[in-house]
Amino acid sequence: MIIYGKQLFLHLLEKHKEKLINIYLAKDIEKDIFNKIVKSGVKIHKVDNKKAQALARGGNHQGFLAEVCEFEFASLNEIKKQDFLVVLYGLSDVGNIGSIVRTTYALGGGGVIMISKSASMEGIIRASSAAAYELPITLVSDGLSLLNELKQLGFKIYGSDAKGKNPSECKFGKKTVLVMGSEGEGIPRKALEKCDENLGINMREGWDSLNVSVAFGILFDRIMNG
């Protein structure tokens, strides 16, 4: 798996150098950064821009690229020990997923569960600005069974829905799950029926939707901070 971009690269070098397999540099870099790279003990390769562009698949690598270990998903049992969980139902856009992961970590969430059999973690890691490495994330294929299990563990489940309650009308406990659906279809009906409450965002008349990661950030903050 290839990651690229200066800030993402430096984050891994600083906090997760054990995940670095090979480092690719496509330009001369600051002496202090180069010294840190050398001290990491990871093999360094100098490459031209053509090679770097190929590794980054045309992305903005800024001269910093690395081959890293495959992403290690957390176990569901580990995530269930956390208090505030996020469940993503049907989301496929790595930009939105990465943004949600970043917001979850930044605002104090406990973990992210994606209802999916697979995920493009290269894009999610980049879009999350490396927050994906700081937060337990897992994949679950059966969303309905998951929601049932979380309810049995004492979690109260809130679904995002355009017709849902204003979060200010709800009293949130410690063990909370926020479910987000895809922009196109939202949360599937059967999953929405599993939710204890549905939450919405009041908007101007004639305006009924927001980007899913933006809507998530608003709902998450209102749940956490009122």
Question: Mind explaining what this structure looks like?
Answer:
With 226 residues, the protein is an alpha/beta fold. The chain folds into 2 domains: 2-68, 2-Layer Sandwich (60s Ribosomal Protein L30, Chain: A), CATH 3.30.1330.30; 76-225, 3-Layer(aba) Sandwich (Alpha/beta knot), CATH 3.40.1280.10. 36% of the residues lie in helices and 23% in strands. It contains 9 helices and 10 strands. A 6-stranded parallel β-sheet has the order 7-6-5-9-8-10, sandwiched between helices. Residues 2-74 form the RNA 2-O ribose methyltransferase substrate binding domain. Keywords: Methyltransferase, Transferase.
**Radius of gyration, whole Å:** 20 Å
Helix and strand pattern? EHEHEHEHEHEHEHEEHEH
Low-confidence stretches: none
Output the CATH homologous superfamily of the largest domain.
Answer: SPOUT methyltransferase, trefoil knot domain
Number of strands: 10
Helix content: 25-40%
Strand content range:
15-25%
Q: Return the CATH topology of the largest domain.
A: Alpha/beta knot
- For this structure, the quaternary state is single chain
- The helix-and-strand class reads alpha/beta
Properties at a glance:
23% strand; 36% helix; 9 helices; 226 residues; 4-stranded mixed sheet; alpha/beta; elongated; Alpha/beta knot; 6-stranded parallel sheet
Give the helices and strands, then pairings.
Layout: E1 2-4, H1 6-15, E2 20-25, H2 31-40, E3 43-46, H3 49-55, E4 64-68, H4 76-79, E5 84-89, H5 94-106, E6 111-115, H6 121-127, E7 137-140, H7 143-152, E8 156-165, E9 176-181, H8 189-194, E10 197-199, H9 212-225
Parallel strand pairs: 2-3, 5-6, 5-9, 6-7, 8-9, 8-10
Antiparallel strand pairs: 1-4, 2-4
Helix pairs in contact: 5-6, 5-9
Protein name: 23S rRNA (Guanosine(2251)-2'-O)-methyltransferase RlmB
Domain RNA 2-O ribose methyltransferase substrate binding: 2-74
Pfam family, one: SpoU_sub_bind
